[in-house]
Structures are given as structure tokens and as C-alpha cells.
Amino acid sequence: MLKKILEWDSDTFVYLNNLGIEEYDIFWTTITDFYTWTPLFIIFFVLIFIKYPKKEAIFVILTLVAMIFFVTTVTDLTKETVARLRPNNNTDITTLIRILKTPTTYSFFSGHSASSFSVTTLVVLFLKNRFSWSWIFYVWPILFAMSRIFVGVHFPIDILVGTTVGILSALFFYMLYVRLIAPYLRLSHP
Q1: How many CA atoms lie within 13 A of 84 on its CB side?
Q2: Statement: residue 187 has pLDDT above 80
Q3: Which of 123, 163, 179, 184 places its Cα 20 to 30 Å from the Cα of 59?
Q4: Contact indicator for 44, 123 with CB cutoff of 8 Å
């Protein structure tokens, strides 16, 4: 069963990766870079400080930082434990795919997907009642995750699992904030 799933994953990756068009390579390599998204992170930070009183905003940011640390740690531990080669390092398929990036770390699961979906989901949860357009921020993790296939560094299952880990982590940290931090500090409900 696992063998069949991994075969499907590899075949799907090769198919999707080959949908990439050379004229869009610069787009995908730019999208996949964390630094490209710095203005969005600044917007998140500013919106939290605009929509929350200063004391609450600080605790929201601290919750966000704690979650990022958690997601990064879980991602790194999982990658080292599972030790799945990235597509760009898998000699069985390197001649069949387009490779635009060449990281040497392991593939499972996608840290880009986990981190982007966790940050976006937590920010949306904190802003949903204070900024009605917050759902639009999901454009970032969707493009960010898709870019990992087009640059040749993650299989679809890596991205799906990373997305799931990210969303579940955000829900968990939001629940911790609402049930433990906000009442203890007598803060308003996010």
C-alpha cells in the first residue's frame, strides 16, 4: 500500500513539475523565496498592532513566535527521522523533471507548506473578527506551496502533510491562546 502511494506521489510530482513553463521560472523561484514575502509579514505585524490593544498584540505576536518555533522543530525532526530524498536529489527521476532549486536537506514534510499555512491560519484566526478580508492572506501559502513542486524540491504528499501540520498547529496554538492566555491575562477574546 505504501509503495503504491509513493509511486502515485512520484508520478503526480513528475506530471505537475513538467507543467512548468520556462517563461514562468523566475516567477516560481521568486515566489518560493521567504524574503519575497517580507512585506506580507510586515502587514501581519502592523495589522495585529492596529487591531489589538498593545498588550494583547504583544501576546498575539508571542503566540505566533512560539508556534513558528514549534512548527520548525517538528518539521526538522520529522525530516531527519523520515529521511526522504527530495525530488531534485532522487536519481530515479532527476532526468524526468525540471529542477530550479537544489537544496540538500530531506523532503518529508514541506517546511514551506507547514510554516506558511500555520502562520496564515493563526493570523486569520486572530483577525477574522477584526479584519473581514483576512482570508485573502491564503493566497500566500497556496502559491508558496505550489512553488515547491515547480522548482522541483517537494512531492505532493510532502506539501499536503506540511499543509495539514501547519493548519493543525495554528488551531492548537489559537486554542491555547483563547483558553489559557486570554483568560489569565483578562484579555478580550480574539
Answers
A1: 19
A2: no
A3: 163
A4: yes
According to the model, what pLDDT value does residue 20 have? 85
Which residue, among 51, 189, 77, 167, has the nearest Cα to 115 in the 3D structure?
167
Q: pLDDT class for 91, splitting at 50, 70, 90? A: confident
Q: Residue 150: count other Cβ atoms within 10 Å of its Cβ.
A: 24
pLDDT value at position 189?
54
3-state SS, residue 32: coil
Q: How many angstroms separate the CA atoms of 30 and 115, rounded?
A: 17
Q: Which of 40, 49, 42 is nearest to 126 (CA)?
A: 49
pLDDT range class, residue 132, cuts 50, 70, 90: confident
> Would you state the torsion angle of the CA atoms of residues 33, 35, 40, 45, taken in this order, to the nearest 10 degrees?
140
In DSSP notation, 110-167 reads -HHHHHHHHHHHHHHHHHTTT-TTGGGGGHHHHHHHHHHHHTT---HHHHHHHHHHHH
Whether residue 69 is preceded by a cis peptide bond, meaning omega within 30 degrees of 0, is: no
Mind giving me the DSSP string for 37-56? Answer: GHHHHHHHHHHHHHHS-HHH
Asked if pLDDT for residue 161 goes beyond 80, the answer is yes
Residues 151, 169, 190, CA angle at the centre, nearest 5°?
Answer: 120
**Hey, CA dihedral for 166, 143, 80, 90, is it positive or negative?**
positive
161: cell is 502533510
